[in-house]
Amino acid sequence: MLRNYVKIALRNLRKNPAYAMTNVAGLALGIACCTIMLLYVREELTFDAFHQKAERIYRLTETRQSPEQGERHFPYTKGPVGPTLVADFPEIVSAVRMRDRQGAGRFTVRAGQQRFYEGDHLIAEASFFEVFDFKLVQGEAASALQDPLSVVLTETAAQKYFGDQNPMGQVLNLERIGDCKVTGILQDPPANSHLDFSMLISFATLEAVPGWKRFIDSWESDSFITYVLAQRPLEVEAFNAKLPAFFQKYRGANPAQAHALKLQPLAEIHFHSAHLEFDRNRAKGQIAHVYIFGLIAFFVLFIACINFMNLATAAAMKRAKEIGMRKVVGAHKRQLLGQFLGESLLLAGLALLCAIALVEFVLPVFNALADKKLALHLIAEPVQLASLLGLGLLVGLVAGSYPALYLSRLRPALMFKEENKTGGARLRRGLVVAQFALSIIMIVATLAARKQLEFIRTKNLGFNQDQLVVIDINSRNTRSRFAAIKNAMRKIPAVQSVSVSSRVPGEWKNLTQIEAAPEGAAETELRTMYFLGIDEDFLRTFEMNLVAGRNLSGAMGTDTSAILINETAARALGWEEPLNRELRVPAENYRARVAGVVKDFHFQSLHEPIAPLVLGHWNNPVSAIDYFTARIESANLPQTLAALQKVHEQFDQVTPFEYNFLDERLHDSYQTDMRVGKIFGAAATLTIFIACLGLLGLAAFTAEQRTKEIGVRKVLGASLGNIVLLLSKDFARLVLLATLLASPIAYFALQKWLQNFAYRITLGVETFLLAGLLALFIALLTVGYQALKAARANPVAALRYE
Questions:
Q1: What is the pTM of this model?
Q2: Rg of the chain on CA atoms, in Å
Q3: Contact criterion met (CB below 8 Å) for 286 and 271
Q4: Among 535, 450, 526, 521, which Cα is nearest to 485's?
Q5: In whole angstroms, what is the distance from residue 470 CA to residue 489 CA?
Q6: Distance from C-alpha of 402 to C-alpha of 384, rounded to nearest angstrom
């Protein structure tokens, strides 16, 4: 029986190759897109799940609350917290303390004669390998981080430093630490690990540094990231309820600022860490993107299945007499059902094979677009193979179920009647509307995303971001000699101006926050503001404007206690006349008077509204300078950069010259939004293409069913345009209906997405009209091809056939 089903199925596919190719192509594209999207979703949802003890690992976070600063959250805790938790709570079996790049900073690494400037490292206790399951390929987990001056490298780092030599036992010289011995090599952290590093430095090294012992033992200093391993999965809320008493027992109460510890499950770190300040782990996940890509996977696959159902029901009408004859000679409904489902599964199987090839071809492109390292491992991961086979089986059954049920239920008498050949038309029209409604939602989303990103790209930020080179100040040596370096840079012919500052626009997450009291206010009336240390050339270099007062003069004797504020800060302080008003920063014992007011500029991402900002003289007690910024001419750029590097090396031969362009840095802050926009665009193109494949087949079916009508009309004088209009108008109505249904859904979904931006576009009716017209144009182009083909056919041949 099965052999007979396969034989008949193959015969029918050979008789209708266009139908088979269209269906296989549509399903293959749908399965391929769905597979890529689900690979993305799977990686996001399985972050850190490769640790065998993942359900028992927790990170400690600290919450600080005060009337002045409100509630703030940090991933750093006091040094003794981890070991003391292990001692006090039997349910905690181990703890590991670490310092990351935020705490440890960047430094120069020397391997022989080679020099590298690194920042992706962790200082970790020996218990690191007891808590986490990063796999060592050389060395012993128990002892690799036991001794001072020991380092463990990833395979990539070992290759970079030592090439093909055996790295074990080799020596690396780390700036400010000394010569360290390589005691282990581990596999690179997986892409779905929130901990991203190339080097582990033993915690014992830190303990040996003079002066650090007091920080390690202090219940006042928040210097460490702490993870704990529980004996079994904990009831987090219940355990967190025990921590206030624990904290107060060892630290005591602080009436000025309340501190609280909380456990954060390892599984929640990737998606639920945006509230933590100074968290430097791998880029945070957004659960909204997981939902978006999951919906894209569903939409595209659903459209492909609708496409299949439409074409299958339409094509099966041609086989009505065959089915009727089979029923007359005794075929059972179950046999017919099996036959049609078998044909659907055969097509789905072919589509699955094509989809796998497509995924392998497209994945590198998608990875570059989404900044991922997704891969299909069908042999190494049997779960992936089983999932794909299950997906193909599901698609074959779902897409083939309706045509099979519909055709197997028809009575034989109806199948020999001519009018039966248009059966199922209402359902096919409904499925076309559903297809195009989903496609139009995707088109609207793509157009809106591009419009918003263009708005961001062209919005006036309040300063000129072009031709600004930002140069990192990497060492104390550079910082102490910045004035001489700055003067030397200004002598380069292509350099128009140079300034120094503690931060630059676009790096707002690291910008210092202060609690400031306006003149005449009590110390309890503090306002939270950002603080930026600048020199007298900052405004000129960035081409910013003063709206009142004067710029800082650079004369240390007078302007170290002078500040500039932005317009938002003046409003936040309630000052209509801010000049010469005093601002106090009690925590730093700092008082300054307002010398001028700077026109508001966007120092944060456009996701955020402009916040109150204080710009203080570089020689202030709040924040140190960290960057040179040079405005340069566009001509002879390589020579200018080489000259800047030469000046830097003249004053600092230890740390490398590092630079970037400010406009590129600002552009990078919207990379995630741009990636989502591009993926939406690709998905919208794909959905339209799949829908058009189905429309092409349906148009051919419709034209074939109306062959006699078209012949009669042509004999009676109908023009080519009349025939095209006859066959196209029904499809045009369906697309217009789809536009009406899709528009409100797209509007509400996009309004929610746009709320992520403090500065955003207004969704106008033109976006929805453009999406509808675009879908209509593509649909009519597709249908028009078949309509023209039918209209040009010889009417005599059509009527003779009838």
A1: 0.78
A2: 34
A3: yes
A4: 535
A5: 13
A6: 28
Q: Are 643 and 562 spatial neighbours (Cβ–Cβ below 8 Å)? A: no
Determine how many CB atoms are found less than 10 A away from the CB of residue 337. 17
Is pLDDT above 70 for 373?
yes
What count of other Cβ atoms lies within 10 Å of the Cβ of residue 617? 23
Which distant-in-sequence residues (6+ apart) come within 8 Å of 725 by Cβ? Answer: none
Q: In this structure, what DSSP letter does residue 54 have?
A: G
- Secondary structure in 3-state letters for 715-735: HCCCCHHHHHHHHHHHHHHHH
pLDDT at residue 422 tops 90: no
Which residue is listed with tokens 């009647």? 417
Q: What is the residue type of 659? A: Y
∠ CA 759-763-765, rounded to 5° = 160
For residue 706, the SS3 value is coil
Q: Over the chain, what is the mean pLDDT?
A: 83
Count how many Cα atoms sit within 13 Å of the Cα of residue 649 in the half-sphere of its side chain: 9
Query: What pLDDT sits at residue 68?
Result: 46
- Contact present, 611 and 529 (Cβ < 8 Å): yes
Task: Give the closest residue to 724 by CA, choosing from 663, 669, 677, 793.
Answer: 793
CB neighbours (10 Å) of residue 646? 12
Find the farthest-apart pair of alpha carbons in the chain and give their distance in angstroms, rounded. 108
Contact 556, 513 (CB under 8 A): no
Question: Rounded to whole angstroms, what are the CA distances from 686 to 139, 439, 737?
Answer: 49, 9, 21
Domain boundaries, the chain: 2-43+287-455+673-801, 56-133+192-268, 468-668
Whose CA is closest to 99, among 190, 215, 233? 215
CB atoms within 10 A of CB 433: 21
Q: For residue 450, which of 675, 605, 602, 295 has the smallest C-alpha distance?
A: 675
Phi-psi region of 169 (alpha: psi -120 to 50; beta: other; left: phi over 0): left
pLDDT tens-digit map of 227-240 = 999 999 999 999 99
Beta strands in 209-303 (DSSP E): 222-230, 258-265
The answer to whether the CB of 150 falls within 8 A of the CB of 205 is yes
Residues whose CB falls within 8 Å of the CB of residue 554, separated by 6 or more in sequence, listed in order = 535, 536, 537
Which residue matches tokens 């033109």? 766
CB-based contact 692:731 (threshold 8 Å): no
Please give the structure tokens belonging to residue 708. Answer: 């006699």
Q: Report the distance separating Cα 218 and Cα 97, nearest Å.
A: 14
Dihedral pair phi/psi, residue 493, rounded to 5°: -55, -35
